[in-house]
Amino acid sequence: MKYNAITPATFISRPNRFIAIVKVDGKELAVHVKNTGRCRELLLPGAKVYMEKAANPERKTPYDLVAVEKDGKIINIDSQAPNIVVKEWLLSQKKYDLVKPEHKYGDSRIDFYMEKGDEKYLMEVKGCTLFVDGVGYFPDAPTERGAKHLRELTHSIEEGYKPVIAFVIQGEGIEEVRPNTATDPEFAKAFEEAVAAGVKVLFLQCKVTEDSLKVDSESWKK
User: Fold this and answer.
1) The domain spanning residue 14 has which CATH number?
2) What is the largest CA-CA distance in the chain?
3) Is 97 in the same domain as 197?
């Protein structure tokens, strides 16, 4: 996926989870943050950030903050990007007879439903932006929906589905993602139970630039 009209800026502060104050051309400006997670280790005063011009010229926040630079590397923090790049990747694989986004299953909407012959797949997508000592961790803030989706995937095995949780790694140089037990023990518990039951875990490593995000390689949790 590619963004349009990317503008660099300097991060100043984040008064709430939706808004950031940045400096552009010497002026302070309020912009929309396309990530409701904490991003505390990324959105630090003085950090270089990248913004996309909003499609609606009348919007109060004229830009969307989509990426940030840390230690010389760009990390995409757009929470909408993972589903877009996974759809692009799934279609490019030409592995499935059917790829359907936003599939209703149980009490949830699972990100993707796929078919290959008689086989039925469910795939839930999670974007990872929290990296510690070369390892990705999810989530960076508590998420009740995350644990719920994992339980739905676990239950689907009994109904003949082949469920997958896919972690889109939104920064380069990270190969795997682990549950962030300290931040969300409920998600970690649901994750371990899902893996034990047979839910497959897919890591999608990405090529990241200030104006693009693309799946570059894949690996499976052993």
Assistant:
1) 2.40.50.580
2) 59
3) yes
**Which residues touch 7 (CB under 8 Å, ≥6 apart)?**
24, 50, 51, 52, 53, 63
d(CA 213, CA 222): 26
Q: Which residues of 205-215 are buried (b: 16+ CB within 10 A; e: fewer)?
A: bbebbbbbbeb
Instruction: Copy the structure tokens of residue 134.
Output: 């070369």
Residue with tokens 């790049």: 85
Q: Residue 183 and residue 167: Cα distance in Å, rounded?
A: 17
Tell me whether residue 59 is in a domain: yes
Q: Per residue in 186-202, pLDDT tens? A: 999 999 999 999 999 99
Query: Please, are residues 133 and 143 in contact by the beta-carbon 8 Å criterion?
Result: no
Asked if residue 1 is part of any domain, the answer here is no
CATH code of 184's domain:
3.40.1350.60
In the prediction, which pLDDT does 137 show? 97
* Identity at 186, one-letter amino acid code: E
Query: What's the CA gap between 75 and 213, in Å, rounded?
Result: 10
| Band of pLDDT at residue 106, cut at 50, 70 and 90 | confident
What the block records as the tokens of 35 is 């990530």
Percent of the chain exceeding pLDDT 90 equals 91
Question: pLDDT digit string (tens) for 38-50?
Answer: 899 999 999 999 9
pLDDT value of residue 37:
86
Domain check: are 30 and 129 in the same one? no
Three-state secondary structure call for residue 196: helix
